[in-house]
Amino acid sequence: MNDSTFEQAAQGFKAADALPAERAAFIRKTYAHLAIAIGVFAALVGILVNTPTAQTLAIKMTGGYAWLAVLAAFMGVSWLAQSMAQSDTSRALQYAGLTLFIVAEAIIFLPLLFVATHMAGGGYETIAKAGVVTLGLFLGLTAVVFTTRKDFSFLGPILAIGGFVALGFIVSGIMFGFSLGNVFAFAMVAFAGGAILYETSNMLHRYNPNQYVAAALGLFASVALLFWYILRIFMGRDWRSLTVS
User: Fold this and answer.
1) 29 and 97 Cβ atoms separated by less than 8 Å
2) Cβ neighbours, 10 Å, residue 7
3) What's the rounded mean pLDDT across residues 26-52?
4) pTM check: above 0.85
């Protein structure tokens, strides 16, 4: 994008207000960056789960109250990464934010994917099935937004409250030692689906044409959350081999 786009961004210019050609270019760039983010994430976790220290690190991350510290650190890094990716003045800062978030996601996925790869019955086949279902749901939800052209920004407060409730259950499960079963996992799949609707709608109604990196980050975060809980459901009780919520 040229300097005029940065000026438009500063004036609150949104992708929905752009000319059709510019809006289409923004959407293409957003999904291209989303695809790249997923590819880099897959490569990183593929390396991490096969390192000699993967099991030791996964156990340390999920032992006792360590998972609480991991979640807190992840939330902090996520906030920082999103703030960086939403910069209206620096493309380098936007990409740094996206890169930081991808690395953080790869690290937090390590325990679950280590179990799925090396300790669960299905192995890579289970991961592949979860990936296919995640892709199918993502495409379906994306189609809903683009075909209905509905603004799903009203989901923001609902997702915020739901996120705090879910976090409360996760923290309670860690502190009091009870397991969050498939009912919680299915609820989180629904939550992630709502997040995808919200972020896809935001792509047009919140972000300006210069912020395709930030839009891709928001979509990637929602897809990663959806994949996490779908994989957990596919793994059945095997996911309990390490204590992750």
Assistant:
1) no
2) 12
3) 94
4) yes
Kindly state the DSSP code that residue 65 receives in the 8-state scheme.
T
Within a 10 A sphere around the Cβ of 121, how many other Cβ atoms?
A: 10
Is residue 180 a contact partner of residue 170, using CB atoms and an 8 Å limit? yes
Longest pairwise C-alpha distance within the chain: 55
- The helix, strand and coil proportions of the chain, stated in percent and rounded to the nearest 5, come to 80, 0, 20
The DSSP symbol for 116 reads I
Straight-line distance from the first to the last Cα atom of the chain, in angstroms, rounded to the nearest whole number: 41
Say what the pLDDT of residue 34 is.
96
Chain-centroid distance, C-alpha 63? 24
Nearest to 18 by CA among 31, 5, 34, 32: 5
Give dist(CA 232, CA 111) in Å, integer.
12
Q: What is the mean pLDDT of residues 163-173?
A: 89
